[in-house]
Amino acid sequence: MALQMAQPYKHPRSGVYYFRQRVPTDLRGILGDKIVSRSLRTKDPATAKLRNIEEVRKQALIWARHRQKPEPLPFQQIVALSGALYRDHMAAMELEPGESQVWSETLSLLDRVAVSPERLTEWYGPTVDNLLLERGLVTDEISRQRLIQEADRTYRQVAEEQLKRSQGDFSPDPRANRFPLLETTEGAPIQQTEGPTIRGIFKLWERDHIAEGKAAKTVGDFRQKIESLIGYVEHDEAQRVTPENIADWCEHLKHDKALSARTVSQKYLAAVKIVFGLAVEKRKLKANPAEDIRVRFGKKVKTRPSGFTDAEAKAILGASLTAPETLGTKRTEENKRAIRWAPWICAFTGARITEATQLRTQDLIEEDGVLCLRITPDAGSVKTGVYRMVPIHPQLLEMGLPDMIRALPPGPIFYSTAFRKKAADPLARARSAGTKVGKWVRDIVKITDPNLQPNHAWRHRFKTVARECKIDLEVRDAIQGHEDGRSASGYGEVSIKAKWEAVKRLPRFQL
Q1: CATH number, domain 198-281
Q2: Sign for the pseudo-dihedral over CA of 436, 438, 442, 445
Q3: Which end of the chain is more exposed for a tag (fewer CB within 10 A), N or C?
């Protein structure tokens, strides 16, 4: 009797179908009694059956390779295989790197693992064996040991990058491109020689984006989304990407990667639409495969105001007045200064937290007889790319903000310029300072409502209070650096005098 072909397996929670197959009996002595499983990237049973047939064919090739004589792997392929580990782990922790202490301890653990080849094999051996199994590679012990060593190097790189991210630095990994292109199961490398590549059209977008003076952070964000798409379709050929590929990729992100529909739509799909759209504008492609794709998501449930309440604002500002020595010995003086002043600055300017923590001593400026803070892209990051002058509120003048700034040496106010390998970029340090302020709000002040952003809520509150004070729309937008998209708003300037009169109307905090 003929054996029945393995049927797609439907995941009981996600509803996504999977290819599953047990290791053949004659290979269990080599590979163990394991089950190979991988997503078919669909919830449709008919589509799953068709894709399952292809996976059965691929898996048959893999089993055939395992029945062959082991062959050594060239070092380039070994490094390429370790790159697959890197991409998988980085994607899994893309949105939430966790606590920096965890990654510091992980690096220490990896140091202890690396004391001997035996411990390296014990630690990485199962991961490496599974990696080879998934790709149908049968190799000798020398190549396996070299792959174990590269796995150790790769996991260190992952830990170092996640440590950097946990400290607020999400800039692209400059070493991410060290991994060569990985070969597919059939042995064809993931690359092409004719026509535009996906990475190539991304470079076109990146060039224009940077030339227009827009945020460098967006480049890193978009690059990660583009690499995710390339990893999914398993090639770099822009002309081969179809609307079906894009739709299936979005489903894969939602169900296999457990990303929210809102995140998939507004971040991943949006980035791909923009990059491919630019390629069409530049006549590199005839059509944008993502143009008509939609990912539906429900309206975000709102259970409270987006800004701090009076009680929450007073709790944070009151706690910030604590003596510096009570903030702990592990905090730097700059970090303590950020906790002391950044919430107050945000409360009276409506600035983004990084716009506050990137301030420098030279950004205290007197103009038309009014002391102001200059928020400028020269200091780090301003979303609109346009500098603005914000008068300092009378309560901050009386509290001694200008005197504090004048007493400091030239340079950043809220982060150190001392060299640190993990955060050498000034913008990354400013972001890290803002992240630590937000963590302090959560951990110490106990403002823990998950529906509230511990720093950005000041920006929402400022707008609410400005409306209560009947501050003119254009004036409050000029103070906060908001753009309303109307061409009329581009004519004329909002003077320092107008902004000063508006700032003075903001009520004082009675603590």
Answers
A1: 1.10.150
A2: positive
A3: N
pLDDT tens, residue by residue, 260-279: 899 999 999 999 999 999 99
Give the tokens for residue 233: 């379709």
- Rounded to the nearest 10 degrees, what angle do helices 75-92 and 141-166 cross at? 30
Helix (H) or strand (E) holding 272: helix 270-281
CA distance 83 to 150: 9
Sign of CA dihedral 149, 151, 153, 155: negative
Q: What kind of fold does domain 310-504 have according to CATH?
A: hpI Integrase; Chain A (1.10.443)
Neighbours of 404 (CB within 10 A): 16
Residue 365 dihedral angles phi and psi, to the nearest 5°: -135, 140
Strands 370-375 and 388-391: antiparallel
Q: Are strands 370-375 and 364-367 parallel, antiparallel or unpaired?
A: antiparallel
Q: Spell out the alpha helix ranges (H) of 419-488.
A: 426-443, 457-468, 473-480
Q: Where are the domains of the chain?
A: 9-178, 198-281, 310-504
Task: Provide CB contacts within 8 A for 17, sequence distance 6+.
Answer: 8, 9, 10, 11, 39, 40, 42, 43, 45, 48, 51, 52
- Encode pLDDT of 366-385 as tens digits: 998 999 999 988 777 676 66
User: What's this model's pTM, rounded to 2 decimal places?
Assistant: 0.54
CA 307 to chain CA centroid, Å, is: 24
Asked if the model's pLDDT at residue 149 lies above 80, the reply is yes
Classify residue 268 by its DSSP letter: I
Candidates 60, 43, 78; CA nearest to 154 is 78
Q: For residues 321 and 511, is the Cβ–Cβ distance under 8 A?
A: yes
The 8-class DSSP code of residue 189 comes to B
Give yes or no for a contact between 385 and 214, defined as CB atoms under 8 angstroms apart. Answer: yes
List CB contacts of 70: < 8 A, sequence separation 6 or more: 138, 139, 140
Look at the block and give the residue holding tokens 């379709």: 233
Q: How far is CA 403 from CA 181, 300, 319, 372, in A?
A: 56, 44, 21, 13
Only one residue has tokens 């411990």, namely 119
